Structures are given as structure tokens and as C-alpha cells.
Amino acid sequence: MSKRGDNSFQKLMAGKTGSTPATYSPSPATHKKKRIPITDADWVRPDNRGFYQCRPAYLRTGAVSTAAGSAYAEFGNTKVIVSVFGPRESKKAMMYSDTGRLNCNVSYTSFSTPNRGQGSDNKELSSMLHKALEGVIILESFPKTCVDVFALVLESGGSDLPVVISCASLALADAGILLYDLVASVSVSCLGKNLVIDPIFEEESYQDGSLMITCMPSRNEITQLIVTGGWSTPKINEAMELCLGACFKLGEVMRSCLKDAVTDLKE
């Protein structure tokens, strides 16, 4: 195991000593004039967060020493590890291309969900991860080769895809893959008249609709938008504003994680 991987992995496994999970909720100033219409005054989120409050985020790079780059993400009970390999020659026959190719795979451990072996549709999630990342990678930097991204959901606690996407972005940066920017992803669920950001598994199970945004915070560009369920125009605008605000905050946390990794290497 390399020194960098060994140090990072020890920090990861050491109960996160000296590390306080960061939060990335949208700025209160952005929404201080808005109030969520609560129809049930006694309703509270299962984890007691506010409707606009994201889960604490713990991020680390260099978790897998055998990979070109890797990252570990823990958002509440959602735990994900992503490994990146390449650029390397593709095992499949390829015509010459001026651009490289991105391959993505998302899988779940057999114990990641309460019902063992019943994870989400891996093919669909793999496709969504690919769409979220392909616009941020400078594919021209590795012609006729490919980069493989393998995401493993260790525990499914809700908002799995946004966590996978954000973690994969960190892993790509850790691998030295040229990117236009990091990508951060956040989702919002509609529960009756209420909007809740960064929903957990229980909230997603009875949501009326969901909206997920993946964006490049520094460039203020969206790379993916996924909407399910029925939305009114005012509500979908509010949900998008919430997601974007949280993405910008999460982007800051991700950049801080990369800076900390560089500092650790220098030391």
C-alpha cells in the first residue's frame, strides 16, 4: 500500500479522529424570506433535520491504494467508495478517436440495504453517473484510451446517486484526470406541500416527486437534471434554487477536501 493510500486509509478507519463532518446546506440568506407551508405542525424529519438542512458530509481521497485515484464519502448513513483506473488502453477494440472514453459502473454490496441483495437498478445508475461526469472530463486529454470509474455503495441511506456522483468527482480529481471543474450533486424530495433537501431512505420511499441537480459550481453550469413526479412551476423553481445553493456549498467542502489531501502529502 502506498504511503499516501496508507495514511488516508488509516485516517478513514481511525474513527475520523480530529475530523468534524462538514455541512453544505444552502445559505440561509438565500431563503430567509421563504417559508415552507407545513400542513402538519407535528411532522418532523426522521433524523430531526430542518427541511433545508443537509446531512453532515465526511469526504476523503486516497482510500484505495491500488487505484489511480479514489474517494470515500459518508453522508449520514449513506456510505460510498469510488475507485478510478486509467487512462489505460481499452480492453475492447476501439477505432482511433481524438477523445478518450469514460466507463462507469455502480454497484451495491449485498448488505447495503435492509433487504439483502435488493439494491437499485445498477445499469440505470451507471448510465446516470456517466451522463453526470462526461461533460466535466476533458476527454481530449487522453485520446484512444479509457478511464474506468467504479462506485460501490457500502450502505444505502438515501440520496445514493447524488453521493455517488460527488464522490466520483473527487476520485477523478485524485487520479489526476483533467476536469473543467468538480461536480457536486444534491437532490430534493417533495412530500405533500413540503420540500426536503438531501432526503434519507425513509423520505424517498413516500415522496411525491424528486429533483436532482448535478452542476459545476465554479462554472455555474448544470451537467444533469433529473425530475420525477408532478411539480408546479413555482415549486420546481424553488427546488432547483435549493439544490443549486447546496451544490455550491458542497463544492466548497469538496475543494477543501482536496486541499487537505495535498497538505497531508507535503507533510
Outline the structure in words:
It is a single chain. The protein has 267 residues and is of the alpha+beta class. Helices cover 31% and strands 26% of the residues. The protein has helices spanning 3-13, 28-31, 122-134, 160-174, 201-205, 233-266; strands at residues 57-61, 69-75, 78-88, 101-108, 146-155, 184-191, 194-197, 209-216, 221-229. The strands form two sheets. A five-stranded mixed beta sheet has the order 1-2-3-5-4, sandwiched between helices. Strands 7-6-8-9 form a four-stranded antiparallel beta sheet, sandwiched between helices. Helix 3 (122-134) crosses helix 4. The longest helix is centred in the last third of the chain and has 34 residues, at 233-266. Mean pLDDT is 82; it is low at 1-18 and 29-39.
